[in-house]
Specification:
This protein is mainly α. Helices cover 66% and strands 2% of the residues. The protein has one domain. The protein is globular, with a radius of gyration of 21 Å.
């Protein structure tokens, strides 16, 4: 196999799409959080500064990944070290003070970090390298025992936080990796059914989750109860019309819509920039999907193909989940909008995914067999 590495030649459309999403996110975080930041921190730009700091750290990571020639992220020491660190941080979360009835963050040296975001990257790298290394025996249950054990432990720790939405994203991503890796459909369906039972048990064990499900499917929506947040989100999107009420002019962000700068930032975007703004953001995610798939197809070997596919899926799937919830097309879950919502952990890890994709896009496959991008 002949490979070439292009130091200057990464996927420009993907980079520009990610850059645009981050820029839109920084602007919308400031617009949606200014009043709240002034009241809580006596500084309107508090969340803007935090988001801009995360963006700077994330793009620095992108630069580092673009400058590295060897794929260190395929080294078993790095992969297992990342998995171990993630598991340790997830367990440490459970010992941290509760924030909004959850234990999703670790606070170390004055910095707050959400390890479940790191888990997405760790699982993608692990499942890709493991599937390729054991491709011939991947359909043997004893071979599947290790990756399934890693997934079960990670998902269980995330569910204990609790973070049901992220647990679904992690499981879906792992399932995609196994399917691409060559797991037979029969085995895949058995595993899917087993995880569906586990998720159903966790779903029924939490009354507030059942209330959200029932509220979503109820013919008469409880707009002052379980459906309140989604109802306010739809009001915000509807108020924006075609071109929006103008940047900074949202009324729903004035404590009517909870999580306006995090999980429901797309609703504020719709209110202030209208249908035009929401379609621009949706189009950017579609560009991200298009380029990510092209990078996966043009990757030089199966491991890089799987990593590129997994990274693309985890960003785009999470974005579509968030948008469907904001538009009232699914039950409420705590899922941020990648690269846009406020949250340094999500932003840095999402940009790390972008950096890995751009690094893979610099590689060429076998001569004559490369997919043109």
């Amino acid at each position: 196999m002949t490979r070439a590495y292009r130091r200057i030649g990464f996927d420009i459309p993907l980079f520009l799409a990610a850059l645009a999403l981050v820029a839109i996110g920084v602007v919308m975080v400031f617009s949606s959080s200014g009043y709240m930041a002034e009241e809580a921190h006596q500084q309107m730009a508090y969340y803007l500064i935090q988001q801009a700091t995360g963006a700077a750290a994330g793009f620095l990571l992108v630069i580092v990944l673009l400058s590295v020639r060897k794929p260190f992220y395929l080294n078993p020491i790095f992969i297992y070290g990342l998995l171990g660190l993630t598991a340790l941080l997830l367990m440490l979360c459970l010992a941290m003070p509760t924030v909004a009835h959850t234990n999703r963050w670790v606070v170390l040296f004055g910095l707050r970090f959400q390890p479940s975001e790191l888990a997405k990257l760790g699982l993608i790298l692990f499942f890709a390298s493991y599937s390729v290394a054991r491709r011939d025996k991947l359909n043997e249950w004893k071979t599947l025992a290790l990756p399934l054990g890693v997934l079960v432990v990670t998902v269980f720790l995330v569910l204990m936080e609790p973070d049901f939405g992220t647990a679904i994203v992690l499981t879906g991503t792992a399932g995609l990796m196994l399917y691409i890796g060559g797991v037979r459909l029969k085995n895949f369906l058995v595993l899917g059914a087993a995880f569906a039972v586990v998720f159903a048990l966790f779903l029924f064990s939490a009354p507030y989750r059942m209330s959200r499900i029932q509220g979503f499917f109820a013919q008469s929506k409880d707009t002052l109860g379980t459906y309140y947040q989604v109802d306010q989100s739809k009001i915000a999107v509807g108020a924006g019309g075609l071109i929006g009420v103008g940047l900074g002019q949202s009324t729903q962000k004035l404590y009517f819509l909870p999580s306006a700068h995090t999980d429901f930032i797309y609703a504020i975007l719709g209110e202030e920039t209208g249908l035009a703004g929401t379609l621009v953001v949706l189009s950017l995610y579609l560009v991200f999907l298009w380029r990510g798939v092209r990078i996966a197809l043009a990757a030089p070997d199966p491991a890089h193909k799987m990593i590129a596919a997994g990274l693309t899926f985890v960003v785009v799937a999470q974005a579509l989940m968030n948008i469907t919830i904001v538009l009232g097309m699914g039950p409420t879950k705590g899922i941020p909008l990648p690269l846009v919502s406020y949250g340094r952990s999500s932003l840095v890890c999402s940009l790390a995914a972008v950096g890995l994709l751009l690094h893979i896009s610099q590689k060429r496959g076998e001569r004559g067999g490369q997919v043109r991008i």
